[in-house]
Design brief:
Length: 147
């Protein structure tokens, strides 16, 4: 269908919102279509990838648990300019205390402003995702005919 990514090709897609995941037509005369077996990412994993700009977990303490994170929309005790709709939409800052990285151009991991007057900000106690295993993915459905 036009507009759903299903045009003149046979890539895996979900044009019918199938809860079992992407599928495609096959060249097997005994099987018209089949699931592709693409693993689904587990969202809200308590680790970050790349520079942490997409981290949306709920950690709210700095490294070592030394400091509590402050609400991103609070300017006390540390005034800042991250409390805006752009950072909310693109980096997940908001009316919460969760670690985020709204500055991936200069920071390498999630961080937060602290509630402690003498410590403006600190990196958070969020581990980097290790993709050596598949624990960050879940397979909802196997392709037909596979074990």
């Amino acid at each position: 269908k036009q507009g759903q990514g299903v045009v003149n090709h046979n890539y895996c897609r979900i044009p019918d919102n199938d809860p079992n995941g992407p599928w495609c037509y096959t060249t097997d005369p005994d099987r018209t279509w089949d699931y592709c077996g693409v693993p689904k990412c587990k969202w809200n994993v308590e680790c970050y990838t790349e520079l942490g700009q997409d981290y949306r977990g709920s950690r709210s303490k700095t490294v070592g648990g030394s400091y509590n994170c402050n609400d991103w929309f609070s300017n006390f005790p540390h005034p800042h300019s991250y409390d805006n709709s752009y950072n909310e939409e693109h980096y997940g800052v908001g009316h919460h205390r969760f670690c985020r990285n709204p500055t991936p151009s200069s920071d390498t991991r999630p961080w937060c402003y602290t509630t402690y007057f003498f410590k403006r900000w600190a990196y958070c106690d969020v581990p980097k995702c290790e993709f050596g295993s598949l624990e960050y993915f879940e397979r909802k459905h196997s392709p037909k005919g596979s074990n």
